[in-house]
Amino acid sequence: GPAWDVHGDAMPGIPTIRMFEALACGIPLVSAPWSDVEGLFRSGTDFLFARNGAEMTGHLRNVLNDRQLAQALAASGLETILARHTCRHRADELFDILAACGNRAAAEIKPATEAAA
């Protein structure tokens, strides 16, 4: 079945890890609204926003009753995770940051790990 995520305001603009986990598992996701200032996901394609309880109920009902919608959300969410949000992506970002700070070791390590992939 679908997953739902209640996002608090502790870190506005940053989704909880549960969102990444659900999408990585290929689960259709309905989420409380949050400000995706970094463009991490495609709202309406990777997951659905529910602005209130009535929308949450409606979206969950639609996902449960519309197999095509559920499959499309699950496939799109997983596609975005694999394209942009794997551990490898985060490690590459860290190496890029270190290299930009003048860390030669980071610049030398990254090509070696890419060759092993």
3D structure, described in words:
- The chain is elongated.
- A 3-stranded parallel β-sheet has the order 1-2-3, with helices on both faces.
- The chain has 2 domains: 3-85, Rossmann fold; 86-117.
- Helix 2 packs across helix 3 and helix 4 (87-100) packs antiparallel against helix 5 (104-116).
- Helix content is 56%, strand content 7%.
- The protein is mainly alpha-helical and 117 residues long.
Contiguous runs where pLDDT drops below 50 for at least 5 residues? none
**Percent of residues in helical segments?**
55-70%
* Series of H and E elements: EHEEHHHH
Q: Briefly, what CATH class of the largest domain? A: Alpha Beta
Quote the average pLDDT.
82
Q: Give the N-to-C terminal Cα separation.
A: 33 Å
Largest sheet: 3 strands, parallel
Main features:
117 residues, mainly alpha, Rossmann fold, three-stranded parallel β-sheet, 5 helices
Topology:
Elements: E1 3-5, H1 17-24, E2 29-31, E3 48-49, H2 53-65, H3 67-84, H4 87-100, H5 104-116
Parallel strand pairs: 1-2, 2-3
Helix pairs in contact: 2-3, 4-5
Provide a concise account of the structure shown:
By secondary structure, this protein is mostly helical.
